[in-house]
Write a structure and sequence with these properties.
Blueprint lengths: L10 E4 L14 E8 L4 E4 L4 E10 L5 E9 L2 E2 L3 E4 L6 E2 L1 E10 L2 E10 L7
Antiparallel strand pairs: 1-2, 1-7, 2-3, 3-6, 4-5, 7-8, 9-10
Function: One of two assembly initiator proteins, it binds directly to the 5'-end of the 23S rRNA, where it nucleates assembly of the 50S subunit. One of the proteins that surrounds the polypeptide exit tunnel on the outside of the subunit.
Family: Belongs to the universal ribosomal protein uL24 family.
Protein name: Large ribosomal subunit protein uL24
Amino acid sequence: MAKLKIKKGDTVQLITGRAQKNGGDRNKTGKVIAVYPETQRVLVEGINRVKRHTKEGQSGRGSKTGGIITQEAPVHISNVMLVDPETKKATRVGTRVETVERDGKTKTVRVRFAKRSGKDL
């Protein structure tokens, strides 16, 4: 299983699918809610919204629950790209190893960066 370059909390852009004028989500941006590495999918806020029909029931207070609920469905990770924080455009992700000195000790740290601008993520 390959290591995923997108993490929870990242802002991503959908790069495939139907165009927005035809009711699709292509080029929409949103924040990653969850990452599922076993299926290589991500859940993005406001993208790939589907309607779920849930069975009607009653809560403890007697109010009705259920009906038609609109929620996000997972998208394959190859269909999204990270958004560059500087240019606000889609970019690839790179990693580099830096040495950091803390408390007199040197540590090697892996840092993610946007390939478009070179800024750290």
